[in-house]
Amino acid sequence: MYDLAVTGGTVVDPAQRLNERMDVAITGGSVSEVAPRLDAGRAARAIDATGMVVCPGLVDLHVHIYEGVSHYGINADEHVLRSGVTTAVDAGSAGASTFSGLRRYVIDVSDTRLFAFLNISGMGMISESVGELEEIRWADPAAAIKVCEANRDLILGIKIRISRKLAGPNVAPALRNAREAADATGLPVMVHPNDAQDFSLDDVLAYLKAGDIVTHCFHGMAGGILTSDGHVRESVRRAVDNGVLLDVGHGQGSFDFDVAERAMAEGVVPHTISSDLHVYNLHGPVFDLATTVSKFLLLGLDLPDALRRCTASPAEVMGMKGQIGTLAPGAAGDLTILRIEETPYAFVDSYGKERRGELRLVPATVIKAGKEVPAVVRG
Q1: What's the number of CA atoms in the CB half-sphere (13 Å) around residue 367?
Q2: Got the DSSP string for 190-231?
């Protein structure tokens, strides 16, 4: 007997190179079988996914879910899980001084599978009016190392934001401290590089190593991925060749259609597609990860390639290849059932620029560890 059978859908599992009509069975919270035809009568519950896409539960490498503490925070279960994301990573909402609360009051009690990048600033992303690195004493590598070592099961890396309003003149020492904490723990750095004071992206990339992540890779502010004449920086190409990863991190102000289009036309494609979902973009322009992925379909990625960048690829970045982000037998019983809406839709980037598309992915049903979660649609 199966606990759940999902039948009739088109299974798109890039980790297994599947893109065909298949049935999926879940037993004991894990995927138990994927086959062209399964006997739904053997399942305690069956879901008919005919006409829809069945993919691994989406993985969002960049969200902000420290509700009630960070000014960015949203409720993970209400706004992340119900929008089709079964695994998410909080990208720096908490630092060494505030992480214990994120763990106890959010991560440990949420149905969403949650992890975190620890902010090199001990305060994390608390205040809308005070940058977390305006006072460099907050960037304490020893404190960050201690918290990372005590929370190895949840902390995946060190996050640093270096925009001028967040770090002011402290970019270089903050990057050095983030590098020190990452090297001491063997974890990667995720850097938010937008509009750093007196620092170009070339300067930032000099601090990064293989496995580090540049999020907001297609932002339209100063110090971006493109040179002044609109071509991809050579430093970016070298960094990618050396193993530095590019992450979308759409966000309220960090995704520009034109920048993405130009970079992708020159062969620079993000390793992971993430939403940077938080309270200020929940009702637009982001809405959810599925809408962000839809924008990359509009930009020319095919469906399996786009879904790989929010399933198998982030799972690998997280060190969880084969456990999440796939429907291989034995993997977590997480599925996202997507409806493909083939009607005109106005997609908007972070700068208000609109592009009309004919195809949008919409979460229809979410399965987390074999249990159905009501989906929510925004936008």
Answers
A1: 31
A2: EEE-TTBTT--HHHHHTT--TT-EE-STT--STT-SB-TTSS
What Å distances lie between residue 154 and 28, 144, 179, 216, CA to CA?
Answer: 23, 14, 19, 23
Q: How many CA atoms lie within 13 Å of 11's alpha carbon, on the beta-carbon side?
A: 26
Measured CA to CA, the distance from residue 54 to residue 288 in angstroms comes to 17
Where does 49-194 show beta strands of DSSP type E? 53-56, 58-63, 85-95, 113-119, 155-161, 189-192
| Integer Cα distance of 160 and 166 in angstroms | 10
Residue partners of 78: CB distance under 8 A and separation at least 6: 376
Specify the pTM: 0.98
Cα 70 from Cα 41, distance rounded (Å): 47
- Whole-angstrom distance, CA of residue 285 vs CA of residue 268: 23
Tell me what pLDDT residue 270 has. 98
3-state secondary structure of 241: helix
- The token duo for 178 is 């983030």
Q: In this predicted model, what pLDDT tens digit does every residue of 194-244 receive, in sequence order?
A: 999 999 999 999 999 999 999 999 999 988 999 999 999 999 999 999 999
Identify which of 359, 374, 283 has the alpha carbon closest to the alpha carbon of residue 84: 374
Q: What mean pLDDT is predicted for residues 168-182?
A: 97
Using DSSP, state whether 30 is helix, strand or coil. strand
Structure letter (DSSP) for residue 325: S
Q: How far, in Å, CA of 100 to CA of 148, rounded? A: 11
Give the pLDDT confidence score for residue 272 in this predicted structure.
98
- Let me know if 229 is exposed, middle or buried by CB neighbors in 10 A (0-12, 13-18, 19+): exposed
The answer to whether 214 and 245 are in contact (CB under 8 A) is yes
